[in-house]
Every structure is written in C-alpha cells, then in structure tokens.
Amino acid sequence: MTKEILPKFKRLMPLIPALLLSGCTLDLLDPRGPVGRGNRDVMLLEMGVMLCIIIPVIIMTLFFAWKYRESNTKAEYLPTWDHSTKIECFVWGIPAVVILILGVVCVWSSYYYDPYRKLTASDPSRKPLNVEVVALDWKWLFIYPDQGVAAINQLAIPVDRPINFLITSDAVMTSFFIPRLGSQVYAMAGMQTQLHLLADAPGDYLGQASNYTGAGFSDMRFRALAMNDGDFDAWVEKVKQSPNALDSSTYPDVAAPQQAAPVTYYGRVQPSLFDGIVAKYNNGMVMNKSTGQMMHMQPAPSEAQMKE
Ligand SMILES: [Cu+2]
Where does the Cytochrome oxidase subunit II transmembrane region profile domain lie (predicted)? Predict the structure, then answer.
C-alpha cells in the first residue's frame, strides 16, 4: 500500500510550495508607487545576496557530512592538519564582499528612499498634496489643511501626485504604514515626522499601524483610496457636505480612545489644529514649517481638560 502511494506523492511534492503561496497576497511585493517599488527591489536584492551564501553553505554542509562519513574509508584523512590559506580566503573573503555589497546598497537606499526626500510627479506641474496625519487611540485622523476637511480612518489621494504627509500622534507612539506605497514612518506625540509617497495606479490599499499599541491596535487600520483627479475632487466635495466640524470644542471627543472607529467625515476643520496637537506636548510651542522658527500656539485641548 505505502509502496504504491509514496512514489506518486513524491512526484507532486514540488507543487506544495505553490499551494502555500497562492493563499496570500504579499502587499510588499506588489507595490503601486515608486517608493514601494524601490523598497521591494532593495529587499529582493538583499535577499538574493544573502541566498548566495545560505544555499552553498547548506549544500556544502550536507555534502561534507556525507563525504567524510565514518564508513567512507576512501576520503582524505588528515589528523594533524591545522591551516589552509585557501579556506581562510573563503571564510574571510566572502563575508567581507557580502558586507561591502550590502553596505553600499544600504547606504545608497537610505538616502535615495529617505521618507523626507521630496518626490516629483512624472508631470512636474502637478503640485504635491499636503495631508496631516494624527495617530489616535485607535484610529487615524487625516486632515487636509488646504481643502479644510478631515476624515477618520479613510485617506483619499489623487494618483500621480506627490503626497506630503506630516505625521504626529496624540496618543502613544505608533507607525504609519501603507505597505503597497512604501516606507513606514513613526508617529510620536509632540513630534512632526514626514513621509513623501506617490501612488501611480488607482486602487484601494490597506493602511495600518505597524507598532503594537494595546487593546484597539488590531482595528487601527484604514483604507488608502488612490483615485484620479475628478474622483478626488468629488470626494473632497462629499466630505465638505458633512455637518461635522473639527475644532477645539469637538476635538477632545474625536480624540477620545475608541476601538474599531467607523469612517467619519468632517466638513470643516479649524486652521492650525495640527500645530495645536503638536504644541500640546511642547509647552505650547511648535516649529513653523516654512521658516523653521519656533512659535507659540494654542495647544489643542485634551479630554481631561474638557471634563474639568
Ligand atoms: Cu523598531
């Protein structure tokens, strides 16, 4: 019985990895923008370089164990051997070359794909879109300062237009990440981090918090909707229709901890609210983005202050 089944099964074994892979979509390996593609290429290149070591080492380990087995009396036997320049060259030379290659790739990609480096669209007349991102417990607030609107857990972005994200947190530290567009960047209270991304195809991409932050963390996700200009303008109009306003009187409720927060639109946003959120953690000070000077700012109220 076993003798009949085993040879048949062996012939099918190469199909097993294919079955395992068909079940998952690997966002990181299927990017939709230049930064995501660059991240993927660097990752694959580094994996390739490392496999150049791992595969020969595994093969040699098995081969040497088999060749110098106790029962093989024909193999070379050197009980007093203690040095081989040839082996030393391999043992030190190959790792040195690998570290050199990985080092050059690492330094180059750190500068080239620096999240703070500004991007230009294929059509340079397309101005970047500013989006202010606030990480809350456990939801994402996206403020569009130039459009005067905001949304919870939904990010709409026009295709082929650079997006300048300015990121902070009004809760614990977490990380802002849209895997198909590339580069994750930390969100920290009192800090303003930056990220420049560009989507080159319309679509609905997953966005997430990639730092564990407690109870509501698993629902701290959003949809990043990349759309053409007409659809983006329509989206902004739709958000503007919302009667909800985001200002210092409504902000504490918006920022209060909430699990699995639904998508919510705000048709009006108080100007400089983002600066106020940053200023909350810096004794009312915030850096002016155009001049780099520190300026005083009315801190955004917190839930505790409203209850007093
Ligand atoms: Cu880390």
Answer: 20-117
